[in-house]
Design goal:
Strand 6, helix 8 and strand 7 form a beta-alpha-beta unit. The chain is of the alpha/beta class. Helix 1 packs across helix 3. The strands form two sheets. It has a seven-stranded parallel β-sheet, sandwiched between helices. A four-stranded parallel β-sheet has the order 10-9-8-11, covered by helices on one side. It is 40% helix and 18% strand. The radius of gyration is 20 Å and the shape is globular. The two termini are 31 Å apart.
């Protein structure tokens, strides 16, 4: 089959769906990866995967720009004629599914690992968008040949209660999974003079960054020998992104150590004593898995 995997960043495809894409390809399927442009596209190409950038702005609310994106997707699907479109995150689920229906793609699968900014944030913009996004989700996720993958029972209940999808179309799985050969504990690990606490996440307020820093501030004030580590980059495409100036201030005050993006996460995880994720809302956190 020809299968399209659609995500809101090429970073997401590389970090979270690379093994899926390779497994599909190795099973003999024709896989096309699509997302907004970015540096990880070339990494995907380097694995021999077919990746194509989209004219997509994750933060855009401009109706004309969004209509152009939808039209672009419809044309792409009509040219490629995939058997299935698999979308990840809410915006990709909505746009990918609407375009797939218009292009008469036979089947659609969507994985919503978290409810996203529109449903988590209490900002006026998020509350204003919520009814619109809810109606779009209902239109996009419905249909006999559509399936929705969710990662916890609360999300299943939420989608069913809101009438967004029929219960028969939902599949509950326990998270996206990790490679247990690559990620394994160090049986000889011993704590050093300083306890090392790691928060592995994009630098977003709704990942609990403020709470993590406040914990660091309280414990440092008591003279506790604890190192608070942040592994992850800002996500400027997300409205909940923490400003770089705030992060620099935390580092300057000695509250946290910023590691930035870390390629070798297995080695980092084996070097720390505690992993913390004070997130407001997740599907099932890959960092904790």
């Amino acid at each position: 089959m020809k299968i399209v995997l659609f995500a809101n960043t090429e970073w997401y495809l590389w970090n979270f769906r690379r093994s899926l894409a390779l497994a599909l390809r190795d099973a003999g399927h024709d896989v096309l990866l699509i997302s907004p442009d970015g540096p990880y596209g070339e990494k995907l190409h380097g694995l021999g995967l077919r990746w194509q950038p989209l004219p997509m702005d994750r933060r855009s609310l401009n109706p004309l720009r969004e209509a152009r994106l939808l039209l672009h997707l419809v044309r792409l699907f009509r040219e490629e004629r995939p058997a299935l479109v698999h979308g990840f995150t809410i915006k990709c689920a909505v746009y990918g599914s609407l375009a797939a229906r218009l292009a008469r793609v036979p089947a659609r699968v969507n994985a919503v690992a978290g409810m996203g900014y529109v449903f988590i944030s209490d900002s006026p913009k998020a509350r204003l968008l919520r009814p619109l996004v809810r109606n779009l989700l209902k239109l996009a996720l419905g249909g006999r040949n559509a399936r929705l993958i969710l990662q916890n029972p609360d999300d299943v209940a939420l989608f069913e209660r809101a009438g967004l999808v029929d219960a028969s179309q939902v599949r509950l799985i326990p998270g996206s999974g990790v490679d247990c050969i690559r990620f394994h504990p160090d049986p000889d690990h011993e704590a050093g003079a300083h306890l090392r606490v790691l928060l592995p996440a994009r630098l977003l307020w709704d990942k609990g960054l403020a709470e993590f820093v406040q914990a660091a501030r309280l414990l440092h004030a008591e003279g506790r020998p604890i190192d608070f580590l942040l592994a992850g980059d800002p996500d400027p495409g997300n409205p909940a992104a923490v400003p770089k100036t705030d992060v620099r201030d935390w580092v300057r005050q000695g509250l946290v150590q910023r590691l930035g993006h870390v390629d070798d996460m297995p080695a980092l995880l084996r070097s720390v004593d505690i992993v913390a994720l004070p997130s407001y809302r997740e599907g099932l956190p890959k960092g904790l898995i």
